[in-house]
Amino acid sequence: MTGTGRLLTVSGRKPAQVAWHSAVGQNQSVTCMNACHIGRADVFDYIGRFHNPRCRRELETSKQNDLLLTKPSEELGNTPNNENIVMSWKTAYRSFYYQDAPEPEDLSLLHNETALLCIDVQNYSLAPKPTAAERARWAPFQRRMHDVVIPNMSTLQQTFRNSGIDVIHAHIACLLEDGRDRSLSQKMPGWNNLLMPKSTEESQIIKELAPRPGEIVVTKTTDSVLTGTKLRLVLSNMSIRNVIVTGIYTDQCVSSTVRSLADESFNVVLVEDGCAAGTDDLHHKELEIINMLYCHVLSNVELQAIMGLN
């Protein structure tokens, strides 16, 4: 189906009505489509190409059409408004199992029962790769991190702090220099064989997202933050019921944490433009797998609008 989105006022730009499309046949939908200076022909070309999942993913990261699909919320004036935002989280990222499921109820995210969890955005993940081939292979991930994920996470952190909502940090680091305390998943040969003692620079959270004094930081040697720490008890003691999840990698530590939180009966929201996987395909596929079953997947702007943050 097709329809017309509402007017969105973007700081420094003219508002424009945007066409939006829920690609039911592909179990996909637009997460938050906001467009500026886009011609009518371009809109319908966009809708037609949206039937193809590959084109969809290319368009989501493309800057050619000046679409603000994944722009940080500060570029939206950082003042979300339910009346000005196309909300489509209730129909987006539907897996095979939930293709025909009823739309979920509206979310209630009380500030005093909610916390932001930032997972594993550490120096090691953004360090330059050793070879030209590896640098080229990881270039899309690096672009998404620097252009989308880090700005959105930074905006959310500051917005939550300004609203008096807890910001919690998790990072991978072993307690022993030889890494004997690591879980099996981080000892297996290959890419995930992570030997990062907590004193090393590579294990530190990047400076753009560094914890502020007084904020909770948990150290884990597992993929799931809950499995490897006392965070579940901490959240319960703080009367936290809703956990907003951001970080990397969507299909690994983020997904493991989301599933663990859901199993412990927390309400989980995953910020889709506050996360990344090694590739966009892995990112989007994992969102489809866990959405509506273990969490609700929202964009940064949708989340801020629902929570009344500015």
Could you write a compact summary of the structure shown?
The protein has 10 helices and 8 strands. By secondary structure, the protein is α/β, with parallel strands linked by helices. It has a 6-stranded parallel sheet with strand order 5-4-3-6-7-8.
Mean pLDDT: 79
In CATH's first tier, which class of the largest domain applies? Answer: Alpha Beta
Q: Globular, elongated, flat, extended or rod-shaped: what is the shape?
A: globular
Largest sheet descriptor: 6 strands, parallel
Low-confidence stretches: 1-80
CATH architecture of the largest domain: 3-Layer(aba) Sandwich
Please identify which CATH superfamily of the largest domain we are dealing with. Isochorismatase-like
CATH topology of the largest domain: Rossmann fold
- Rg, alpha carbons: 19 Å
Number of strands: 8
Number of domains: 2
End-to-end separation: 32 Å
Strand content: 5-15%
How many helices? The count is: 10
Q: How much helical structure, as a percent, in the residues?
A: 25-40%
Question: What would you call the structural class?
Answer: alpha/beta
In the sheet with the most strands, the strands line up as 5-4-3-6-7-8
Topology order in helix (H) and strand (E) letters: EEHHEHHHEEHHEHEHEH
Walk me through what this model shows.
This protein has helices at residues 40-49, 53-61, 123-126, 132-137, 139-162, 225-228, 231-237, 250-263, 280-290, 300-307; strands at 2-4, 19-21, 114-119, 166-172, 216-220, 242-248, 267-276, 296-298. With 310 residues, the chain is of the alpha/beta class. It folds into two domains: 2-98, no CATH class; 111-307, Isochorismatase-like (Rossmann fold, 3-Layer(aba) Sandwich). A six-stranded parallel beta sheet has the order 5-4-3-6-7-8. Strands 1-2 form a two-stranded antiparallel sheet. Strand 6 (242-248), helix 8 (250-263) and strand 7 form a beta-alpha-beta unit. The longest helix has 24 residues, at 139-162. It is globular and about 50 Å long.
